[in-house]
Specification:
Chain lengths: ~270, ~325
């Protein structure tokens, strides 16, 4: 077959290819932080390593932008959205996985099909509904329309279908109702799946852009809009803009450092987002 | 499947059991000791639980997805500027006629096609090449690379836009590295679309590589090795054994790229170019957004939305059929 020489050559080529791709992937993120840590006056400095390091840009950002408020709002939106989606979709997936009922496949298709429907087709009507409910410019207006996620229903149903039937049968023998069974048998056994799904939903909600941009017209609401406003207002102050952008990504990057394996697996399994 | 919680089982009534009776939720787990009730009521109760569990999700779907679609269809026959005080005028098919005759829209559709074609190499070709190359790397090296190439998809879209705007700034690093002087990538008709495309490719290529890699791990390496034992070259084994087994993954990526390219590029367009200069970087969804919320032409936006939705759904249906036809060989 292949001699050790060519196989070593191939390994070297693999490493080279991946190293290039990794560098391309990483560099803009590095550049964001490198630009942020330059001194205030060095805005257009292009040296690859920022020196001397300075927190001046961060100090400026904290003075000119309500960073804590933006992060807190985004945390609320992403946290409540993810928790709500998890709850709503857990119940729906349970219905699909545990019962045979009339209309099951049609209803399941109704969930899956929402994945196909672009947000831009429904946005005008939803905007009007929120406006009638007085939810424009509120965090609730960002959260409520997103409470059902087709992706979460599909993934949870898959996990539940793989669930050992004996456990459910045993629960039924014990005379437990379906509600008790869900919380005492199903949920504890699905904990890893629920954990990775909730991270996925949280990250998606954190990085969501369209809907918050539509509902919250003020820039001082969630980080995505905060940076967009900042980008317009501060124009060429790249050090400050990069510092603000870095702060907006920081919670997600920290989460990624802590649990990158689970995060990658959850994203890859879910397909694209 | 555990069907029977209640005595009598979940015998589904003809006509379904969607009626929600008051107190149904409370009665559901117990469901016993109802001998006195008429059999029909008991059977309705027994059939009820799955529908109750579905209720919150279904309510969301109806309120936020299906009802709005119907309303969008209705709006597409009217002329209305979204202001509650101004009247809606029925205009029949006028909006649809405008959709198909607006040069702006034709331009956006062409751009969308370019975005899709431009992203396909980065969602399918490059990822497949890389995934095939890295198959045999050691676990540790692979997990380091995985972590690095996955990173871009996690960066918030607005932060991505910001850092790339800085990189592509006339005085930014890209111009300096290429020695191009003060070229303004995002403000020139020739390069605005290309820049957005490049940024979007940067966001998805590592992620797509991991999806294809995951598809590859589902395929036993034995097949390829067996083919090589039989005298096939490495390339032949890949081309005739591995790639065919990978096609459901690749079709899936194709479907995603076709359907979602316009979504992926949307925030970048909004933050970086607003579709300009001279509409050279806009796409169909961005134009919709523009009609609906900048020009406040809700009828036109709805008509265009419905039209695009129908086109995309037709493409998706064809691709799904292809996937079905070709995926039987996988098992």
């Amino acid at each position: 077959m292949s001699s050790p020489g060519t196989s070593r050559g191939r390994t070297a080529a693999s490493h080279a290819l991946l190293a290039v791709l990794s560098l391309v992937s990483l560099f803009p993120v590095y550049w964001m932080f490198a630009s942020a840590f330059r001194e205030r006056g060095d805005t257009f400095d292009q040296s690859l390593v920022p020196w001397p390091l300075s927190l001046g840009n961060y100090r400026y950002v904290f003075d000119s932008l309500d960073v804590a408020g933006l992060l807190a709002n985004t945390l609320v939106v992403a946290g409540v959205t993810a928790a709500g989606q998890l709850m709503v979709c857990l119940l729906a997936a349970y219905a699909f996985a545990a019962w045979d009922f009339r209309g099951r496949s049609v209803l399941f298709m109704a969930f899956v099909a929402t994945w196909l429907i672009p947000f831009q087709v429904t946005m005008v009507s939803n905007y009007l509904v929120l406006s009638n409910l007085g939810l424009l410019n509120t965090l609730a207006g960002v959260i409520v329309p997103n409470l059902c996620s087709a992706l979460a229903v599909i993934m949870l149903r898959q996990h539940m279908q793989a669930f050992p039937r004996e456990l459910l049968d045993a629960a039924r023998m014990d005379g437990r109702g379906s509600w008790t069974t869900l919380w005492t048998v199903v949920v504890p056994n699905l904990r890893p799946a629920l954990a990775s799904l909730s991270i996925l939903l949280f990250i998606s909600a954190w990085n969501d852009y369209f809907w918050p941009a539509l509902v919250l017209q003020r820039a001082n609401s969630v980080v995505q809009l905060g940076i967009r406003g900042y980008l317009t207002a501060e124009g060429d102050d790249w050090g400050a803009v990069m510092a603000a952008s870095g702060l907006a990504c920081l919670p997600i990057l920290a989460l990624y450092l802590a649990m990158q394996r689970q995060i990658i697996d959850a994203f890859v399994r879910s397909g694209l987002r | 499947m555990f069907v029977e919680f209640a005595p009598g089982g979940a015998v589904v009534l003809p006509g379904g059991g969607v009626t929600v009776t008051p107190g149904g939720a409370a009665a559901m787990p117990a469901g016993r000791g109802q001998a006195a009730r008429p059999a029909l009521a008991r059977r309705v109760l027994a059939a009820l639980p799955p529908y109750l569990y579905l209720l919150p999700g279904l309510a969301c779907l109806v309120v936020w997805t299906y009802k709005p679609i119907i309303e969008a269809v209705q709006l597409s026959f009217y002329h209305w500027n979204l202001l509650p005080t101004s009247p809606r005028t029925y205009v029949g098919l006028e909006n649809y006629r405008r959709v198909f005759s607006l040069p702006q829209l034709r331009g956006a559709a062409t751009n969308t096609l370019w975005y899709i074609l431009g992203l396909l190499p980065f969602s399918i070709v490059v990822p497949t090449v890389i995934a095939l190359t890295i198959r045999d790397l050691g676990d540790r090296a692979r997990s380091v690379y995985r972590a690095l190439i996955f990173l871009p998809i996690l960066v918030a879209p607005v932060a991505t836009a910001a850092v790339w705007r800085w990189l592509l700034d006339p005085r930014g690093l890209v111009n300096q590295a290429l020695g191009l002087g003060h070229y303004n990538w995002l403000r020139e008709e020739n390069t605005a679309l290309l820049s957005i495309l490049a940024i979007c490719a940067w966001q998805i290529v590592g992620f797509a590589t991991l999806v294809v890699s995951a598809g590859l791990t589902g395929i036993s390496a034995d097949y390829g090795e067996a083919a090589q034992m039989d005298g096939a070259s490495r390339w032949q084994a890949t081309r005739w054994v591995t790639l065919p087994l990978l096609r459901s993954t690749l079709l899936f990526m194709l479907l995603m790229t076709v359907l979602l390219s316009a979504q992926w590029t949307f925030p970048l367009i909004d933050v970086l170019t607003q579709g300009g200069p001279a509409d050279s970087s806009t796409n169909v969804y961005y134009l919709l957004w523009d009609f609906g919320f900048r020009s406040l032409d809700s009828g036109l936006a709805s008509a265009a939305g419905i039209a695009f939705f129908v086109v995309f759904a037709a493409v998706a249906a064809v691709l799904v059929r292809l996937a079905d036809r070709y995926s039987f060989a996988d098992n």
